[in-house]
Amino acid sequence: SPQHDDDENLAFMSRDDMVAAPVPTHDMPAGDMGGNINLGNMICKSAHPVAAFFHVFFKISALLVYMFCGWFTDRFVLVFVTLVLLLAFDFWTVKNVTGRLLVGLRWWNNMKPDGTSEWVFESHQGTRDIHPLDWRIFWGGLLFAPLLWVVFGIFAALKSLQWLIVVLVALALNGANVVGYVKCSNEAKNKLKSAVTQGALSALTRNASLFGQIAGAAGGAGANEQRGAA
């Protein structure tokens, strides 16, 4: 299928050769800018609807379980395990799948033999056009969910230590992806600026060399004419 082919062609470069994934430069279609747009419509109109769906599914599921689990059970261990599984699924999906497909970014952290860690960032090679809805779904979900968990954490700290532990787990997993992708995005922008600067310098160098060759040829022609007149 076209989507499968697109996923197979999604190549990544090493950190040294990384090219920044472009920020969308075209405007949102007029039909998508209305005030009645909802998350379901955004996912359906996404360039990668399956990835967009799971990008928000696990986040929303974890939040709903946390808010309404008391209506169905008072077994904290069951709720805790369910939440940790949903949060873990969300962490893995965002880190390894949706970031790559929706915004062309990926990150991970390597442990060196000396015990230190190294952040590694990759972005999509070339000038792949990122769909505006993909961009909005990815960054909106990535940043909005941790904000809700912070609010829940404030109330949990005032009421229950065990629920505070749940919120801290959620913040740790969500926060890791936020930090990773923000760093990755900044790194991509810096690489893009560097590539643009190097391209401009190369163009100036080539133009200067060409101008020098033209000037040298013109000077040689003038000298030959003078010798011929003499």
Strand order of the largest sheet: 1-2
How much helix is in the residues? 55-70%
Order of helices and strands: HHHHEEHH
**Helical stretch count?**
6
Q: Number of DSSP strands? A: 2
Segments where pLDDT lies below 50 for 5+ residues? 1-36
**C-alpha-based Rg, rounded:** 26 Å
Mean pLDDT: 76
Instruction: Give the biggest beta sheet.
Output: 2 strands, antiparallel
Class derived from helix and strand content: mainly alpha
Amino- and carboxy-terminal Cα gap = 77 Å
Strand content: 5-15%
Shape field? elongated
Topology:
Layout: H1 2-8, H2 39-44, H3 49-68, H4 76-102, E1 105-111, E2 117-123, H5 132-159, H6 161-229
Antiparallel strand pairs: 1-2
Question: Would you mind describing this structure in some detail?
Answer:
The longest helix is centred in the C-terminal third of the chain and has 69 residues, at 161-229. Helix 3 (49-68) runs parallel beside helix 5 and helix 4 (76-102) runs antiparallel to helix 5. 24% of the residues are buried. The chain is built from six helices and two strands. By secondary structure, the chain is mainly α. The protein has helices at 2-8, 39-44, 49-68, 76-102, 132-159, 161-229; strands at 105-111, 117-123. A hairpin with a 5-residue loop joins strand 1 and strand 2 (117-123). Helix content is 68%, strand content 6%. A two-stranded antiparallel sheet has the order 1-2. The radius of gyration is 26 Å and the shape is elongated.
